[in-house]
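Much of what follows relies on a compact textual record of a protein's fold. A record is reproduced here so that you can trace the correspondence yourselves:

. . .
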Amino acid sequence: MKELFFIILAYLIGSIPSALIISKRFFGVDIRDYGSGNMGATNTFRVLGSKYGTIVMILDILKGAVAVGLYNFLPYYFNTDAELQRTNFMIGLGLAAVVGHIFPIYANFKGGKGVATLFGMILALQPVVAISCVGVFLLVLYFTRYVSLSSIFAALFLPIGVLWIWNEHEFLYRLFALIVAALVVFTHQKNIIRLLRGVESRVPILKYRDKRKSRRRGE
């Protein structure tokens, strides 16, 4: 019963509409009426710029990490013989937060794609894996400026890292990594179509680098 209460609480934490709060508080608009219509960091980067996109991304990451950390309120999970149960419960808490972000009760169940919240969840579960995924994300972002493509590559790297690089033996964690990769690809279907058509929007970062390159080509 206590676990169920904290799962629900994790969902409510994940439901906090960071992008919507920022867009209404500082711009007086509903972020879902612009860009892709998603209430996430990617669309915030695209519509409101890198400053507010970064703020929303950090807040969304914190939602996943804080939700996973709720297990600390149940002393049972500190027992050394409860390691497997603790891991399973942490995954459940994190997934509840991700579901909350995608289907937020505070915003008519119309949220974002959950990538940043997923990252916060993985950061709390396995920091090394999370940082490696960030490395992949930043590398792809640097060369493409597509947040969607960067998110997809980082998500696909997760099961590769868990199953083969770190060779994680816990079945549920392996299954979780595969589900995360599939979920991110599934929620980015429209982005994939736009990428294939060459009409996906780039985020307004590293634009000065691109301008310098364009000037050099014109010289």
Summary: Residues 2-218 form one domain. The chain has eleven helices and no strands. The chain has one domain: 2-218.
